[in-house]
Automatic annotation (TrEMBL):
The protein, known as: ABC transporter substrate-binding protein
Top-level taxon of origin: Bacteria
InterPro entries per the UniProt record, alphabetical: SBP
GO molecular function: maltose binding
Sequence similarity: Belongs to the bacterial solute-binding protein 1 family.
Source organism of this protein record: Aeriscardovia aeriphila
Signal peptide: 1-21
């Protein structure tokens, strides 16, 4: 449990962040936005945040911290993954404050649908978070959005079948246990190609002209590895929840997912519940490190808001320590702020530790540039072809080149 001194420190730090966000117009991007004592704010959050009462709690706390506003709140259900497309349709009619997955950042910036953070809030984000989280909300050197949780995937396993030592290498696990992996999911499958030296849009993932470098001999070796292990049954596709169901009935021992599945995995595995960062994998006789896409979910304000200053302040408030702690306690949403990750309650969370270790050690920053829109469908189709075994060890090289050529099509 968190002791009283820690709680006081957390609340003080939260107040500081909100206070920074509340600075005068000289510290706010885009001027005062025409706000007055009467303020109306439309807020988009996932259904789970509204069902748990998290957003309502933070709205009441914000009102208490800002008595200068008389706020009329409107809450609408829009998930972080759907926000980008919804906002882009009509930024002027979109929410004043919304949560979003950072892979949508480039499109939101291009649509002028996301506000740049005030200098003081940007500085607070930089001091509170690891660089990977800061990078996840940065576009051309400017910060947009306050990260509130990491967004990546890692490994869950049955520790009665897989030891901690076994869990360090995928091949070892495939020899001893049944491994389920979302092969036809384009958010997961690139982990193998990154492992064997591939890259997407340059070393930093921000050079659209660099394209996808998942081909050649190194890419063909990965495809052959996947095709062989799908054919021999050592690697099974995790589709439509089959991996989680397999953990529960004992037919699967290892799955790959994120913190959103932690409670379900705990129920499935009971005392045998374990999680870890991504393992290495041995491809073509060489042990290499699997790497997942990593990013964040963040809070942003709409620069088209009629109450831009209040919207910017509330976005900062939702990303503050107090709100992140509430989010974790009410919904299990793992925070990004370093001091919160170091508190006793979060530190004892197995999934939270696996996520933090993965982001720090076995991930790459997910590209947010608009060229990524051409990545998802061809990659999913390639994964499906692997699962259906139309990609084989014999045609792996040619099929890999066909896939990469699709990704790099102008």
């Amino acid at each position: 449990m968190i002791n009283s001194k820690k709680i006081v420190a957390l609340l003080a730090s939260s107040a500081m962040l909100v206070g920074l966000a509340a600075c005068g117009n000289s510290d706010a991007k885009g001027g005062n936005g025409g706000e007055s004592k009467d303020v109306k704010l439309l807020v988009w959050t996932p259904q789970e945040d509204q069902k748990a009462g998290w957003i309502q709690k933070e709205e009441k706390a914000f009102e208490k911290a800002h008595p200068e506003y008389k706020i009329t709140w409107s809450n609408k259900v829009v998930s972080e993954g759907d926000t980008g497309n919804t906002v882009k349709k009509d930024p002027a009619a979109a929410a004043d404050v919304y949560l979003f997955a950072n892979d949508q950042l480039g499109a939101l910036v291009d649509s002028n649908a996301i506000g740049e953070l005030a200098d003081s809030v940007a500085q607070q984000v930089k001091s509170d978070n690891d660089q990977s989280m800061v990078d996840s909300v940065t576009d051309n050197g400017k910060l947009y959005g306050v990260p509130f949780t990491g967004n990546t995937w890692f490994m869950y396993y049955n520790k009665s079948k897989v030891s901690e030592a076994d869990a360090k290498n995928l091949n070892t696990m495939m020899d001893k246990a049944k491994v389920s992996f979302p092969i036809d999911n384009s958010w997961y499958m690139p982990a193998f190609y990154y492992a064997n030296g591939g890259s997407l849009y340059g070393p930093k993932g921000n050079d659209g002209k660099a394209g996808a470098d998942f081909g050649g001999d190194k890419g063909a070796a990965v495809t052959k590895f996947l095709a062989e292990n799908i054919a021999n049954g050592k690697l099974v596709d995790d589709a439509n929840g089959s991996g989680l169901a397999g953990l529960a009935n004992g037919s699967v021992d290892v799955i790959f997912s994120g913190t959103w599945d932690a409670e379900n995995v705990k129920k499935a595995l009971g005392d045998n519940y374990a999680a870890a960062q991504l393992p290495t994998v041995t491809i073509d006789g060489k042990e290499v490190q699997m790497k997942s896409f990593a990013g964040s979910k963040a809070v942003a304000y709409n620069p088209s808001s009629k109450f831009q200053k209040a919207a910017a302040q509330f976005a900062a408030f939702l990303g503050s320590k107090g709100a992140q702690l509430d989010h974790y306690e009410m919904r299990g949403v793992v925070p990004t702020i370093k001091s919160l990750l170091d508190n006793d309650k979060v530190k004892g969370d197995i999934a939270a530790k696996a996520q933090a270790d993965t982001i720090a050690n076995t991930s790459v920053l997910q590209p947010t540039i608009t060229e990524m829109s051409n990545f998802w469908d061809p990659t999913q189709n390639f994964g499906k072809a692997l699962v259906e075994k139309s990609v084989t060890p014999d045609n792996a090289a040619q099929k890999t080149e066909d896939w990469v050529n699709q990704l790099n099509k102008k």
